[in-house]
Amino acid sequence: MPQSQEEVGRADKNAAAAYLAKLRLYQAYEQNDTHQVTNINMSHLQEVVDYADDVTGALEADYGNNYLDGFDNGLESIWAAQFSINDGTTVGRVSFVTGLNSPHGTGLYGCCGFHLASHNMVNAFKTDASGLPLLDTFNDSNIFDVVDGNGETPLASGITLDPRIDHTVGIPGRPFKYRNTVNEAGDMIYNFSWARDPGVYGYFGNMKEQQAPDCSCYVKEGPFVGTSKNIEFIRYADVLLFKAEALIQMNQVDDGIGLINEVRRRAAASTQRQLDAGASDIYNIGEYPMGMSKEEGLKALMFERRLEFGMEGPRFFDLVRWGIAEPVLNAYLDVEKTRKDFLSSAKFTAGRDEYYPIPQREIDFTGGYMSKTLGIN
């Protein structure tokens, strides 16, 4: 395949190599029927490194560029779904799917306020005095817990944050899509009332998938919102962390940590846009030291993937790949169900819940063949 394509959006060598790196990384974790890892295949891990090295790309200078109109198919984009607007069709070929996750309780947007961040996820962005994540204690207390009379959630005293939080989550009292004033789009300070049902699902919003209503990429069709912003399947940060994971698993820990730190340095430099609504001292993000053990390196890698790709979708599949979905998700539920009643009976069952159910109509479409080959009764 060519290194690049003349027609934007078509798969090229970069996309193929990145997908092969991802494939070999998943294949490297050999598992039993209950998704416990029984072996790590080192030859597959070496292929991850080799394929990652075939990918040409770079990190965007600012983390937020990945989530704003005007940066589609840029330095960091390796493979993405393409959308368009003002293309001669009625409303454009826009993404209404991500639009369903726009803020619900405001006239600026529309339906429906899905895909919200949890307290657990928001708390993960805490940092210690050296700017590193609180890997084991981040969820012991909530960063934002009390909504005041203005519908805002003041930051608890003394807490510092990874700046990626304000690129990822809508938080009452803080700017949404880097706007903190009333402008053509309206008042863009995220408000408690913007949440779909704060008493049930919480009040943190989804920011990465949204654009400001005055963006030329934005269209509203009745109550539904769509944008022409690409949806990224793989970006260069993914490739770096694929390679970092493989290196750490192969005991080349310092090399892997160096790649994680490359991602963290970009995050540290991503505070130029208006993010903090006046508080200039809340961000503190540092680099991991060299000389970490393999276990420490893997723990850092796993946490870094959560922070870097928050609200982008790979978290569940990462947990399944690592063979830790059951303990991590049940520990998450044990605490989160005390915060949200609708989770009171939730439980993750190993060996079953790693998969989505196959739709009945797909089973029917095969005339019974799928049932026989997969042993479905």
TrEMBL record:
Gene3D superfamilies: 1.25.40.390. GO terms for cellular component: cell outer membrane. It is found in: Cell outer membrane. Keywords: Cell outer membrane, Membrane, Signal. It holds the Pfam family SusD_RagB. Residues 76-365 form the RagB/SusD domain. It comes from the Bacteria. InterPro entries: SusD_RagB_dom, TPR-like_helical_dom_sf. Belongs to the SusD family. This is Putative outer membrane protein. It comes from Algibacter lectus.
